[in-house]
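New to this. Help decode the following:
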Amino acid sequence: MNAIARELHIARISFARQPEIRTQSLILRPVTAADVEAIALGLNDHQVAKMLPPVPQPYYREDAEEWLGRWQTGEAEGWCFAITRDGGPLIGVISIENREGEWHLGYWLARPHWGQGLMSEAASAVGERFFGAMLAETLHSGAVADNAASLAIQEKIGFAVTGCRQVWCASRSETVTVITTELTFGSYMPL
């Protein structure tokens, strides 16, 4: 793919032009500076951070501001949604980011909202919107091997396991096994 075609391809999925997505229980909207405090609070919970290898502990407001800045400046390419219930405060984040030419799904949810099916609902809705714009693409993801809940979410919407790799986990200060997964339009199963 030449550079111009790549730019047009990526432009379909951009932070500056991302949609708002409404589901039965959620509103997924672009993350804004007003969400920084909720992001810092959610990711400062070790039970959340230990499932996200790059997230340090403690996690400060400045960390959230730096992370959001990557999206706002275009350093991060893709979509980054605040997960909200009926437009209330951010309770988690779900993103699709282009990393070296591959699209990656990532997400987290604040612990008080675990076990309610909210992330399955969000992942299904974002997957549907992604494949609506990028039909021929593959969506990559994965989860730390001891994060059965995250792997179940991915399996529910059609992700297939592709392997595993060893990754440094900042919050655990150790190497962890990450199970890698991928999803195509043909294997996507909306909820």
Summary: The chain has six helices and eight strands. The two ends are 33 Å apart (CA to CA). Residues 105 and 155 are 13 Å apart (CA to CA).
